[in-house]
């Protein structure tokens, strides 16, 4: 749905165009404030109850059950905003049990500006596991939104053997002199992205722009009731990326806006409540030689304009002098909501764990390889549990498979968006008896009773309904949960999350009607419940799915997959290697997964990715034999995804993770401490 928003000067807005909206927002804000005041009251009551409980138990502080732990962390070299605080979360109740909202906050030392301290009572004779984080705290609600955190694979660990313990640390350096800090996951609130692609801005009349003049755009989060800018805070914090190689990290906007030359530009806004944030876009014309700026116009986007997870906005800039339309802007938006109930124990995390000894992992494509093809098909049906187990027995370190949802939101393993079924009750005699129907239109139970077909070499091939196959491991459409519970846990997995793409030449892979946040949340819910004790990662051809996976969870790496045909899809982030690396850098993804054929146009592909500290997985038909696989491994890639792994890997090859003692210790810690 396209939304049209036009902004004139502030007086006109308040008196005419937005009078009814302001009235609506006032009523809304009043209701919201009452709700927030109630929440704050409840939180304060809870905190008071905890304090009273501590007073009641104060006699225990000198017994053998309590240790007084003095946390002291140095943040030298770490930038921290005035509205941000430092916290410590951990495995005991007094440390929030890994819950950022309940974790104690440290105070800045009076003697050392870079030092933060806190004193906490913890249980004696137990292992203390903890991590530091930096967060923004909303003043009105006291909601804590994590912004950065320590991501070493193993948390800090201390055995509390004495009544007084001092933990003196450097932020991010769980291992000495090895800094590991990353942007935090979205523990609460929302992220809103505004995406401007090629030629998004169209002026009503051509401006006589000279070479030293530049168009600038500035996005300001505003209070929707007062129409006043919101200072950088937990309530709203805006950044941008111009998606340039080597400099695409999210940054704060210049005072007069970001130079826009009709290439890709991203605005990102973090917030605790998207209903409390509107957006004011300002259009400026700057002159480098004179040092002056001309204000051309502005426009306002209300919170309710972003009423779905993703969409397109067509908005108009209006002159503040006469209210006339100056230019029109077409941009896409994405709303990311925090994953409901994503509360996991962070004794371990594999978010940034891919040691050098794992370079060149062998990853089975859809298990043992594609089977629904004419040339050299795998003997076992692809994307079945049997195919996964066969790959493991052949020596695969991981398998890559495709995940999508049924109509009743069950994550299943299947590649194609559309299924070929017969129109009548009998067997199809010709292709005219077959039709295509989307997987999302079937419930999981309906799929179990569905006979499907494929046309291979002009021959119609029938595949039995899963419920009619006696061996569950040989059935099509296994659930994601079944993979985790029924395959060897040493077998790692790359879950490629399917989402239909618009083609560059026109058309779309399939129509998706499930909400994007709901789609990702349904998959992550299964991952949260049953994935522990196994090495996993995510990937997708959809850049926004990758970004959502990065924000919604804090355990597994995310790769942005790039097509073998460039450009195949409409999204310019998929058009070649550089935009893919820039996307990974802008949104803190772990790496990219291009087709191996990328080396034909970019022989330095691995170097380009490694310079930005991004990992590389390769896939595609170029990885067709043992010689080719060996050559690509020498290029320094992190893993290779290929078919017929049973015929390519050496006969004595064994699974890498099965013999990795350090990894098994991490898994043991993860499982022994519990995960949820």
From TrEMBL:
A Pfam family matched in the record: GDPD
One of the GO biological process terms: glycerophospholipid catabolic process
Superkingdom, natural source: Eukaryota
Organism: Zeugodacus cucurbitae
One Gene Ontology term of the molecular function aspect: starch binding
Record's keyword terms, sorted: Hydrolase
Record's protein name: Putative glycerophosphocholine phosphodiesterase GPCPD1 homolog T05H10.7
InterPro entries for this protein: Carb-bd-like_fold, CBM20, GDPD, GP_PDE_dom, Ig-like_fold, PLC-like_Pdiesterase_TIM-brl
Residue ranges annotated for the GP-PDE domain, each copy included: 360-652
CDD domains attached to this UniProt entry: GDPD_GDE5_like (cd08572)
Sequence ranges assigned to domain CBM20 in this UniProt record: 61-187
Upper lineage: Eukaryota, Metazoa, Ecdysozoa, Arthropoda, Hexapoda
Signal peptide: none
Gene3D superfamilies: Immunoglobulins, Phosphatidylinositol (PI) phosphodiesterase
């Amino acid at each position: 749905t396209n939304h049209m928003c036009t902004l004139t000067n502030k007086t006109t807005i308040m008196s005419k165009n937005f009078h009814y909206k302001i009235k609506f927002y006032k009523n809304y804000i009043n209701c919201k404030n009452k709700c927030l005041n109630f929440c704050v009251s409840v939180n304060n009551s809870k905190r008071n109850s905890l304090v009273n409980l501590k007073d009641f138990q104060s006699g225990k502080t000198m017994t053998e059950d309590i240790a007084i732990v003095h946390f002291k962390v140095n943040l030298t070299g770490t930038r921290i905003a005035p509205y941000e605080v430092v916290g410590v979360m951990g495995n005991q109740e007094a440390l929030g049990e890994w819950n950022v909202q309940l974790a104690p906050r440290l105070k800045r030392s009076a003697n050392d500006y870079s030092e933060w301290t806190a004193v906490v009572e913890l249980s004696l004779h137990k292992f203390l596991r903890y991590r530091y984080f930096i967060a923004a705290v909303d003043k009105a609600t006291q909601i804590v939104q994590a912004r950065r955190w320590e991501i070493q694979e193993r948390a800090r660990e201390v055995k509390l053997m004495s009544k007084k313990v001092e933990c003196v640390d450097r932020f991010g350096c769980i291992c000495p002199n090895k800094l590991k800090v990353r942007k935090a996951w979205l523990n609460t609130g929302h992220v809103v992205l505004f995406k401007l692609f090629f030629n998004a801005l169209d002026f009503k009349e051509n401006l006589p722009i000279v070479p030293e003049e530049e168009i600038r755009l500035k996005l300001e989060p505003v209070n929707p009731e007062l129409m006043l800018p919101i200072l950088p805070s937990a309530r709203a914090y805006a950044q941008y990326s111009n998606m340039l190689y080597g400099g695409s990290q999210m940054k704060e906007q210049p005072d007069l806006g970001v130079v826009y030359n009709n290439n890709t530009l991203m605005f990102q806004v973090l917030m605790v409540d998207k209903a409390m944030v509107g957006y004011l876009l300002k259009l400026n014309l700057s002159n480098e030689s004179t040092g002056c700026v001309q204000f051309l116009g502005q426009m306002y986007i209300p919170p309710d304009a972003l009423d779905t997870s993703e969409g397109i906005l067509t908005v108009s800039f209006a002159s503040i002098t006469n209210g006339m339309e100056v230019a029109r802007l077409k941009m896409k938006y994405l709303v990311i909501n925090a994953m409901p109930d994503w509360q996991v124990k962070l004794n371990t995390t594999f978010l940034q764990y891919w040691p050098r000894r794992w370079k060149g992992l062998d990853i089975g494509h859809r298990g043992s390889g594609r089977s629904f093809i004419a040339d050299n098909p795998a003997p076992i049906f692809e994307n079945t549990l049997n195919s996964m187990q066969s790959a493991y027995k052949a020596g695969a370190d991981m398998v890559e498979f495709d995940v999508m949802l049924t109509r009743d939101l069950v994550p299943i393993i299947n590649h194609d968006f559309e299924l070929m079924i017969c129109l009548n009750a009998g067997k199809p005699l010709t292709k005219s008896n077959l039709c295509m129907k989307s997987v999302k239109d079937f419930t999981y139970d309906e799929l179990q009773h569905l006979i499907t077909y494929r046309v291979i070499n002009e021959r119609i091939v029938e595949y039995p309904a899963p419920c009619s196959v006696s061996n569950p491991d040989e059935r099509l459409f296994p659930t994601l949960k079944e993979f985790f519970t029924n395959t060897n846990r040493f077998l790692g997995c790359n879950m490629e999350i399917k989402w239909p793409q618009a083609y560059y030449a026109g058309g779309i892979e399939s129509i998706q009607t499930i909400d994007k946040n709901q789609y990702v949340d349904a998959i992550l819910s299964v991952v949260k419940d049953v994935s522990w004790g196994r090495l996993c990662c995510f990937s997708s051809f959809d850049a926004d799915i990758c970004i959502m996976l990065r924000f919604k969870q804090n355990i597994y790496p995310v790769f942005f997959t790039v097509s073998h045909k460039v450009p195949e899809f409409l999204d310019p982030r998929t058009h070649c290697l550089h935009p893919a690396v820039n996307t990974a850098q802008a949104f803190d993804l772990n790496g990219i997964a291009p087709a191996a054929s990328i080396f034909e146009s970019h022989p330095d592909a691995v170097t380009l990715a490694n310079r930005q500290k991004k990992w590389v997985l390769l896939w595609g038909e170029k990885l067709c034999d043992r010689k080719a696989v060996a050559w690509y491994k020498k290029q320094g890639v992190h893993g290779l995804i290929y078919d017929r792994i049973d015929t390519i890997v050496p006969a004595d090859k064994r699974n890498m993770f099965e013999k990795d003692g350090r990894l098994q210790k991490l898994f043991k810690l993860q499982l022994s401490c519990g995960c949820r």
